[in-house]
User: Which sequence fits this backbone?
C-alpha cells in the first residue's frame, strides 16, 4: 500500500446543530498550522437543526483548494446519513464511525474504524453531562489525529484560538481529543494510506472567511453607515461589521463614529443606505439574491440621482427562496441589468478572501469617484467558508472622495454650478454635501427628469443629453476598476474566462488537462464589469475561450458574447449550477465535452479571425505563470 501524504479529502457527516463546527474547524486549523495548504467547506441545510450536514476538508500539498468530488476519509456520526456516507467513501479509503450506530457495513474495499464516542466521553470526569454531546465530537478529532498524524500541539493551538484563550473550555475539549487519541492508539490498526506530514506552505498566511474579510475591508475603507436585514448567506458580513466597528471606529472620548442599523426589511435597508450616501456618509448594505430583488427600485434611484452606495451580494441559488445554504454565481445578469429603463451597473467580482477585503475598501472609492451604486458579488462558498489568505493590510492609498465641492471651491466658481453638468467631459459631475454652508451649494435631488442644474424637466432633448452623459460615465469607470488576473501558459491557443471563487478549481482542471490531454490553456479571471480592454483582447487572442461559471444559463458567457459579437462563435459556455462549490472534475469534463463538439471548420475560422493585437499578457495582472 503506497502512502498518500498531504493530498486527500476528509468529510464529516453529522446533524445540523450538533455542535460539530468546533471539532471540524479544529481539524482544519491544526492542518493549516502544520504548514499544509488546506480548505474547509460546510454543506448545511437551511433549517435550524436536525437535518444532515457535512463538512469537507481538503489537504493539498500542491495548493489546490477547490472542492474535491472524491471522498478519501469519511467520518460518520449521524445515523440518518450513515448509509449515504458509507457509500461515498472512495475505494481504498477510510471510514470512521460512531460505534453506537448499529447499521450493516458490507464494504470490503475500504478501511473500517469504529469509535466508542459516547462511552469515552461518558467516562471523562471533566465533561458535564449536559456537554457530552457537544464535546463528544472531539473524540473523533483525537482518533483521526492519531491515525493520520495530526500534530497534537497544533490541535491544542487551534482550540486556544477558537476559545480565545479561555482555559476551561480548552481543557474540557482537549481532554476529549486525548481520550480519542489514546483509544485509537490502543485499539485501531492502520489500514489506509493517508498521512499528514509537516510542510511550510502556509507560512505568513491566515485563515479567514470572505464575509469577515469584506467587513474588515469596509471598516478600513471608512464605512460610516451600514443598514442590513438578516439573510443567509450575507448576515455574517453585517454581524462582523458590528463586531469590528466598536473596536476600530471609536473616538478618544468614547463616542462612536458610525451607525449600524438592522432594518425591518431589505427595502428599508437600501433606502437608509441611499439617504446616508446622499448626506455624504460612506454607506453600504449587504444581502443575497432575494433581498437584492427587493432593492431594485432604490438602486435605480441611486443610479439616476447619482448617489454613491455599496451593495454586497453574497450569492446563493435562486430563483425565489431557492436553496438558501447553497452557493451560486447566478445573480450576475440581474445585477448588471438591475433597474428598469436604460441603466448601468458597476460590479466588482472578488475571487478570494483577500480580494473580499481589498474590494471592501476599494468599493467606496469607486462609488464616490463615480457617484453611483457599486455592487460587489461574492458567494456563499467564499463568504461563509474558511480559506487561506494573505494577511490583510491597512490601505496605504488616500481615500478617494471624488468630485466634491467644498465652501472654498464654490467661492472660486464664477457663476452658478450644475449638479449634473459634465464639466470635465468624463460624464462625472460635481456634487456638494448637506452641511456645506455656502449659499450656492444647495440643489434639489430627484429621481424624475432633471437638467444639468437639477431642475425638473420633461424636455426630451435634455433627457437624452443626460442619459448620454450617464453612459459616458460608465465608460470612464473602466479605468478605475480592478484589472483581470491572468494565469498564462506558454504557447496557449485556448483560453478560460471565469470570475469569483471558481479560480482554484479551474487552475487544478487546467493542470490536469495539460497533463492528461496536452492542452495548453491561458486563464483570465474577470474582476469587474463593465469589462476592461484586457478582457476583449483576451477573447480576440484565443481560438476557443471556455467560459466557466456556477449557474445554469452561462450568464458571464452571455455578457461576453454581447461585448464581443464578432467572437461569439469562439466563446463556449461551461456552466453548471447544482449548489455545490466548483470542482476540477466537472470543469475538466465540461471542457472536454465541449472541445469534442468544436468542428474543424470552426477551429479554422477561429484561427483566421484572431486579430493581430498587442498581447493582453502585457497588461493584465499576472499570477501563476508557468
Assistant:
Amino acid at each position: 500500500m503506497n502512502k498518500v501524504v498531504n493530498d486527500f479529502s476528509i468529510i464529516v457527516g453529522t446533524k445540523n446543530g450538533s455542535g460539530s463546527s468546533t471539532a471540524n474547524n479544529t481539524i482544519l486549523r491544526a492542518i493549516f498550522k502544520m504548514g499544509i495548504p488546506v480548505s474547509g467547506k460546510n454543506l448545511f441545510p437551511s433549517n435550524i437543526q436536525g437535518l444532515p450536514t457535512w463538512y469537507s476538508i481538503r489537504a493539498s500539498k500542491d495548493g489546490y483548494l477547490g472542492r474535491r468530488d472524491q471522498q478519501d476519509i469519511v467520518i460518520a456520526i449521524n445515523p440518518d446519513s450513515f448509509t449515504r456516507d458509507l457509500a461515498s467513501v472512495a475505494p481504498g479509503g477510510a471510514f470512521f464511525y460512531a460505534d453506537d450506530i448499529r447499521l450493516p457495513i458490507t464494504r470490503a474495499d475500504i478501511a473500517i474504524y469504529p469509535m466508542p464516542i459516547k462511552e469515552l466521553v461518558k467516562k471523562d470526569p471533566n465533561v458535564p453531562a449536559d456537554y457530552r454531546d457537544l464535546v463528544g465530537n472531539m473524540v473523533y478529532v483525537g482518533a483521526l489525529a492519531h491515525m493520520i498524524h495530526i500534530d497534537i500541539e497544533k490541535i491544542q493551538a487551534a482550540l486556544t484560538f477558537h476559545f480565545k484563550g479561555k482555559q476551561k473550555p480548552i481543557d474540557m475539549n482537549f481532554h476529549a481529543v486525548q481520550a480519542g487519541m489514546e483509544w485509537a492508539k490502543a485499539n485501531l490498526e492502520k489500514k489506509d494510506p493517508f498521512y499528514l506530514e509537516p510542510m511550510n506552505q502556509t507560512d505568513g498566511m491566515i485563515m479567514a472567511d470572505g464575509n469577515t474579510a469584506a467587513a474588515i475591508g469596509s471598516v478600513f475603507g471608512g464605512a460610516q453607515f451600514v443598514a442590513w436585514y438578516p439573510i443567509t448567506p450575507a448576515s455574517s458580513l453585517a454581524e462582523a461589521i458590528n463586531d469590528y466597528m466598536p473596536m476600530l471606529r471609536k473616538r478618544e472620548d468614547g463616542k462612536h463614529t458610525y451607525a449600524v442599523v438592522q432594518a425591518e426589511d431589505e427595502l428599508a435597508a437600501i433606502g437608509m443606505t441611499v439617504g446616508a450616501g446622499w448626506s455624504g456618509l460612506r454607506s453600504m448594505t449587504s444581502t443575497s439574491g432575494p433581498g437584492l430583488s427587493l432593492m431594485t427600485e432604490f438602486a435605480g434611484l441611486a443610479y439616476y440621482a447619482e448617489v454613491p452606495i455599496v451593495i454586497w451580494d453574497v450569492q446563493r441559488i435562486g430563483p425565489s427562496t431557492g436553496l438558501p445554504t447553497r452557493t451560486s454565481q447566478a445573480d450576475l445578469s440581474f445585477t448588471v441589468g438591475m433597474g428598469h429603463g436604460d441603466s448601468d451597473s458597476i460590479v466588482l467580482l472578488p475571487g478570494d478572501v483577500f480580494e473580499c477585503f481589498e474590494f471592501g475598501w476599494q468599493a467606496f472609492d469607486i462609488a464616490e469617484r463615480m457617484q453611483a451604486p457599486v455592487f460587489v458579488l461574492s458567494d456563499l462558498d467564499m463568504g461563509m467558508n474558511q480559506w487561506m489568505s494573505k494577511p490583510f493590510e491597512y490601505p496605504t492609498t488616500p481615500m478617494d472622495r471624488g468630485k466634491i465641492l467644498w465652501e472654498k471651491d464654490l467661492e472660486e466658481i464664477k457663476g452658478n454650478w450644475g449638479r449634473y453638468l459634465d464639466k470635465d467631459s468624463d460624464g462625472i459631475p460635481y456634487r456638494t454635501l448637506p452641511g456645506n454652508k455656502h449659499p450656492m451649494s444647495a440643489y434639489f435631488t430627484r429621481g424624475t427628469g432633471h437638467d444639468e442644474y437639477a431642475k425638473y424637466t420633461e424636455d426630451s432633448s435634455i433627457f437624452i443629453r443626460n442619459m448620454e452623459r450617464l453612459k459616458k460615465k460608465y465608460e470612464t469607470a473602466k479605468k478605475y476598476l480592478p484589472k483581470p488576473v491572468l494565469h498564462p501558459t506558454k504557447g496557449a491557443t485556448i483560453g478560460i474566462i471565469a470570475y469569483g471563487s471558481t479560480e482554484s478549481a479551474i487552475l487544478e482542471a487546467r493542470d490536469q488537462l495539460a497533463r492528461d490531454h496536452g492542452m495548453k490553456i491561458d486563464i483570465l479571471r474577470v474582476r469587474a464589469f463593465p469589462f476592461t480592454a484586457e478582457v476583449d483582447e483576451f477573447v480576440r487572442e484565443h481560438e476557443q475561450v471556455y467560459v466557466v461559471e456556477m449557474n445554469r444559463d452561462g450568464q458571464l458567457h452571455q455578457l461576453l458574447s454581447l461585448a464581443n459579437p464578432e467572437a461569439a462563435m469562439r466563446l463556449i459556455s461551461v456552466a453548471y449550477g447544482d449548489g455545490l462549490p466548483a470542482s476540477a472534475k466537472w470543469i475538466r469534463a465540461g471542457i472536454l465535452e465541449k472541445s469534442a463538439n468544436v468542428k474543424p471548420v470552426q477551429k479554422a475560422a477561429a484561427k483566421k479571425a484572431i486579430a493581430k493585437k498587442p498581447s493582453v499578457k502585457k497588461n493584465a495582472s499576472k499570477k501563476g505563470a508557468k
